[in-house]
Amino acid sequence: MSLLLRNALLLDVTTGEYAEGDLRCEDGRIVEAGPGLAAPEGTRVVDVAGASVVPGLIDAHVHVTAASADLGSLGSMSPSYVAAHSARIMSQMLDRGFTTVRDASGADFGLADAQAEGLVRGPRLLFCGKGLSQTGGHADFRGRGVNQQDDHPCCAGVGRVADGVDAVRAAARDELRKGAHHIKVMASGGVASPTDRIDSTQYSMDELRAIVEEAAAANRYVAAHAYTARAVNRALEAGVRSIEHGNLIDDSSVELFLEQDAYLVPTLVTYWALKEEGMAFGLPESSWRKVDDVLGAGLLALERAARGGVRLVYGTDLLGGMHRHQNHEFRLRGEVQQPLDVLRAATVNAAELVGMAGEIGTLSVGAHADLLVLDGDPLRDIGVLAEPERIRHIVQAGEVVSA
Questions:
Q1: What are the residue boundaries of the Amidohydrolase-related domain, all occurrences included (predicted)?
Q2: What is the reported pTM?
Q3: Residues 6 or more apart from 71 whose CB is under 8 A from it?
């Protein structure tokens, strides 16, 4: 199948420069770009009349199985019921312009295969399977009075509990066996978990290093949930490639990000949404009370990291009915960053993080033909990307999937 976009303003997100011309896609890839391109027989031609064209967006921190903000309830739900919710969530993500997403625990090879085969409409899905948690950690959703831990591999939960170097090695190897693109580890306390403190550190350094070693052996990497500077710094020192959230980092964290060549994936919008709507969508009150611990610090952490030169990636971490706010992250980041820097976080930076530089997040010839035609210039107003209704066309694998 061939698609030709005529009269476009094609954005190179690396340089921040537009080029006037046409763009042709064939067999799911970008094959030509330039003025006055010929349209082979059978090509669908769309004249975009001078509209801005940008790469398809990448959200590097989602939970497509999070049908509810009560993550602890997912494990008791039927996997087929959760899969049905996931199909809806993924389809709506695509309609918001996200052509690739990195799931940060919950999704598995079944959903990824279903999307790749066209059984589920949605973004390309890069999954980690179940996140690794210590007993009493961020993915241990037992209340204080519950003793038994059910980690059945077919349950729809987002995490698995493993303690000790041998156990975490086995757990990491098991997720890699199932095709995980990365390993997720809970390196600090969190909002959604019932028994830990946000300011706690989780896993020993030996356990963290063992997980990193197993991922590296499989040519994969580790993403770590962490909030405080203490937790973030431990994870970075252990060799983790990306820090998720990082709301409470300090200057020593910034230095370690640069030293370790690591990425930060802030998720500002989820705290805003959890505070406003979390309990309405299933977040337990005990978790809702934790939100204030990280809500106000997120923008300051983003500003600190951006000023220090940390490589930043777009993430949202929304749950349940709050997924609809996915694009609002653009507006929040725009409060402290320039529009081009925010757009890079959702394109080229994210592509580099997930090991797909040159394949996604770019309009370069040879890349996957995932792109957006916009009603407005996102370099002048990042709000163009914060409002899905201003996306005129969504192209995925060279096919117009939303118009």
A1: 53-401
A2: 0.95
A3: 63, 141, 157, 158, 192, 319
